C-alpha cells in the first residue's frame, strides 16, 4: 500500500510535533512543511532534512536570506499531498480550507478554529468512524481532548451522569514566554461555562458537563479537577477500571514522587520523550476518590503534546486507509511510544 502523503502548514508548537509524528508512522510520508517565518524553528526543520515551503510569496525572500533552502511554494506543497494538516494560528486555517478543497486535498485543522468551519470535530476514541473519508475535520484543543478521553471513558462504562470541572490553564507556551503570559497571579475566565465544556459537546453532545477555567502563572501543562456524579454507587476500582479501558490515559502516583506538574514534566524528560512531550492524560491514581455515587479526581494535560496522536488518527480517518479507529490508535500509539503506564 502506498504511503499517505502529508504536508504541514504552520511549523510552530503543534506543527513541528505533528511533523515528527508523521515521520514516525510507517504508512505516512511527510512531503514537506510550510510557514512564513525564517527563524531557528524553520532553520531546524531544514537541518532535519524536511523540505521547507513558503506559505506567502512575501516571506520567501526573507527565508532565502536566512539561508533556508526553499523547496517551493505553499501551492506546490498542496499539489503534492493527499492531506494537509494546518497548524497555523486561529483563523488562518479556516481561510485556507477553500484552497484545500479546490485542490482535492483533505484537511486536518486544529482546535483554534471553530467547529462550524469543518462541521466535524475529532477525538479518535470518540468519533473516528464519523470522520472516515470526510474532506476535513478539526482536532479539538488540548483541554477538550483530555475531557473527551476521560469523561468518554466514564460514559462508555455507563458510569457518567454529570461532570463539573475546574481547569487551571498554563499562561502561555514556553517558546513565547518572553513576550506574553501572566506573572504572580491567577486570572479567572470571564464566562461560565468556559469554552472547553461546550467544545467537548461538539464531539460528544450527550455529555452533561460544565467547566470553569482560570489562567495561572506557569508555562507548561494544564491541571484539571473534576467532581463527577455517577449513574450509581460504584467502587474506586470500578472507576479506575473505566479509565484503564480507555486509550491514552496513564496513571501517575503521588507515592512515586509525582507530586506536582513539574514532577511529571521531569519524568517525561527522564524517560527520553522527544521534547519531553506527554501525549497521554496523566491521572493521579492515588488521589482519585469515590464516595457512593460521586467520584473526584485530578489530572495533568501536556497542552503542547496531547492532540498530536489525534492528528495522526485524523489523517488515517480522512483518507479512509484504516477503517477501524481502534486499529489506527494502536498503530499511532506503537509508533510514537504512547503508554498506559509510565513506571513499573
Ligand atoms: N499551543 C497549544 O498548546 C495548542 C494546543 C492544542 C491546539 N492548539 C491549536 O493549534 C493551532 C496552532 O497553534 P500553535 O500553538 O502551534 O501556534 P504557534 O504560534 O506556535 O505556531 C503557528 C505557526 O504558524 C505560522 N504561521 C503564521 N501565519 C501563517 C500563515 N499565514 N501561513 C503559514 N504559517 C503561518 C507561524 O509562523 C508559526 O510557526 C491553533 O489552532 C491552536 O489553537 C494549540
Q: What secondary-structure arrangement, pairings included, does this model have?
A:
Blueprint: E1 4-9, H1 13-23, E2 28-35, H2 40-47, E3 52-54, H3 57-65, E4 70-73, H4 74-79, E5 83-86, H5 92-102, E6 106-109, H6 115-118, E7 121-122, H7 124-131, E8 136-139, H8 142-156, E9 160-169, E10 187-188, H9 196-203, E11 209-215, E12 222-230, H10 236-244, E13 249-252, H11 261-270, E14 281-284, E15 289-291, E16 294-301, H12 308-319, H13 325-336
Parallel strand pairs: 1-2, 1-5, 2-3, 3-4, 5-6, 6-8, 7-8, 9-11, 13-14
Antiparallel strand pairs: 9-12, 10-11, 12-16, 14-16, 15-16
Helix pairs in contact: 1-12, 7-12, 7-13, 8-9, 12-13
Bound molecules: nicotinamide-adenine-dinucleotide.
Written overview of the protein:
There is one protein chain. The protein has 344 residues and is α/β, with parallel strands linked by helices. 36% of the residues lie in helices and 24% in strands. It has helices at 13-23, 40-47, 57-65, 74-79, 92-102, 115-118, 124-131, 142-156, 196-203, 236-244, 261-270, 308-319, 325-336; strands at 4-9, 28-35, 52-54, 70-73, 83-86, 106-109, 121-122, 136-139, 160-169, 187-188, 209-215, 222-230, 249-252, 281-284, 289-291, 294-301. Strand 1, helix 1 and strand 2 (28-35) form a beta-alpha-beta unit. Helix 1 crosses helix 12 (308-319), helix 8 packs across helix 9 (196-203) and helix 12 packs across helix 13. The longest helix has 15 residues, at 142-156. The radius of gyration is 20 Å and the shape is globular. The relative contact order is 0.15. Nicotinamide-adenine-dinucleotide (NAD) is lined by residues 9-15, 34-37, 55-56, 87-90, 92, 110-113, 141-142, 173, 303-304, 307.
Amino acid at each position: 500500500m502506498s504511503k499517505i502523503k502529508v504536508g504541514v502548514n504552520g511549523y510552530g508548537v503543534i506543527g513541528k510535533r505533528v511533523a515528527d509524528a508523521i515521520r514516525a508512522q510507517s504508512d505516512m510520508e511527510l512531503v514537506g512543511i510550510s510557514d512564513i517565518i525564517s527563524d531557528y524553528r524553520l532553520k531546524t526543520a531544514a537541518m532535519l532534512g524536511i523540505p521547507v515551503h513558503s506559505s506567502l510569496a512575501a516571506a520567501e525572500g526573507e527565508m532565502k536570506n536566512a539561508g533556508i533552502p526553499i523547496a517551493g511554494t505553499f501551492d506546490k506543497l498542496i499539489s503534492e499531498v493527499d492531506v494537509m494538516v494546518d497548524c497555523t494560528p486561529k483563523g488562518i486555517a479556516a481561510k485556507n480550507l477553500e484552497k484545500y478543497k479546490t485542490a482535492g486535498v483533505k484537511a486536518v485543522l486544529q482546535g483554534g478554529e471553530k467547529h462550524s468551519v469543518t462541521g466535524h470535530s475529532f477525538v479518535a476514541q470518540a468519533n473516528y468512524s464519523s470522520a472516515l473519508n470526510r474532506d476535513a475535520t478539526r482536532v479539538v484543543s488540548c483541554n477538550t481532548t483530555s475531557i473527551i478521553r476521560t469523561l468518554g471513558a466514564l460514559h462508555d462504562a455507563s458510569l457518567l451522569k454529570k461532570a463539573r470541572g475546574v481547569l487551571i490553564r498554563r499562561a502561555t507556551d514556553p517558546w513565547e514566554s518572553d513576550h506574553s503570559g501572566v506573572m504572580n497571579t491567577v486570572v479567572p475566565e470571564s464566562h461560565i461555562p468556559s469554552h472547553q465544556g461546550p467544545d467537548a459537546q461538539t464531539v460528544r453532545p450527550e455529555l452533561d458537563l460544565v467547566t470553569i477555567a482560570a489562567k495561572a502563572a506557569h508555562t507548561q501543562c494544564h491541571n484539571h479537577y473534576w467532581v463527577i456524579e455517577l449513574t450509581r454507587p460504584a467502587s474506586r476500582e470500578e472507576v479506575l477500571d473505566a479509565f484503564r479501558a480507555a486509550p491514552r490515559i496513564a496513571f501517575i502516583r503521588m507515592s512515586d514522587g509525582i507530586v506536582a506538574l513539574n514532577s511529571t514534566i521531569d519524568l517525561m524528560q527522564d524517560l527520553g520523550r522527544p521534547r519531553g512531550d506527554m501525549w497521554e492524560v496523566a491521572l493521579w491514581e492515588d488521589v482519585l476518590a469515590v464516595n457512593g455515587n460521586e467520584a473526584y479526581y485530578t489530572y495533568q494535560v501536556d497542552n503542547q503534546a496531547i492532540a498530536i496522536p489525534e492528528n495522526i488518527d485524523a489523517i488515517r480517518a480522512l483518507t479512509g486507509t484504516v477503517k477501524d479507529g481502534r486499529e489506527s490508535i494502536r498503530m499511532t500509539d506503537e509508533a510514537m511510544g504512547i503508554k498506559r503506564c509510565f513506571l513499573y
